[in-house]
Amino acid sequence: MGSYEALMATLALTMGASWASGINLYAVMLVLGLGGATDNINLPAELSVLENPLVIGAAAVMYVVQFFIDKIPGLDSAWDTLHTFVRIPAGAMLAAGAVGDVSPAMEIAAGILGGGVAATSHATKTGTRLMLNTSPEPVTNWSASISEDLLVLGGLWTALNHPILFLILFIIFIGLAIWLLPKLWKFIRGVLLRIGKFFGMTNASATETGHGAASFTESKHEGK
To answer: Taking every annotated instance into account, which residue ranges of this chain make up the domain DUF4126 (predicted)?
Structure first.
């Protein structure tokens, strides 16, 4: 493999592992770990820990747990929220390890980029699933969950076997995410405001603001 091909392969693995981690971290660990342990995937030495049977076993257990939780409306969003603190750091670590034996500065840079990519895919998944949870039927959640698993498997396979194609698709994903995330945030903000209004939190805030404004006005009149 020439230097150009090696660079593309490393870049695809780095971005692919971090991108997929933001969607389904345990599937990524399981695929890379099993692939490395069976010599079907040539992992960098820094990621060889994924081949350890304990790591593979833990990833398999957590994948099964997520497989079922991810299909229950409401519970899937709670799971995604908790995994904000898991997927993003793990994506950064996988990206840092995927670049192989490089300088510490390069490793840190890869980790920063990987964390950002994992955060982007995680935010896209979380926002989309929250939007789907407004639908009362569970079929949409099942379809979305299975589609995400297939997307992760297909993305990793493409990154490992056709790195240039993956990088092209990855750039397209980043562009779509930049366009979609503000819309998802607007939707999520609307949901949060409706929840706050339902529990009286929004009205209470408005009332407090009104009282504060009234007190300020009264103090001005008294000063005059």
So the answer is: 11-183
- Give exposure, 157-174, as e/b (b: 16+ Cβ within 10 Å): ebbbeebeebbebbeebb
Place of tokens 């695929």: 31
User: Are 73 and 95 contacting, i.e. CB atoms less than 8 angstroms apart?
Assistant: no
> Chunked in runs of 10, what are the mean pLDDT values of the chain (224 residues)?
85 96 96 96 94 97 95 89 95 94 92 96 90 73 91 96 96 93 80 68 49 43 49
The total of other beta-carbon atoms located within 10 Å of residue 82's CB is: 10
Tokens of 183: 């819309």
Buried b (16+ CB within 10 A) or exposed e, 89-128: bbbbbbbbbbbbeeeeeebeebbebbbbbbbbbbbbbbbb
**What is the pLDDT at residue 210?**
44
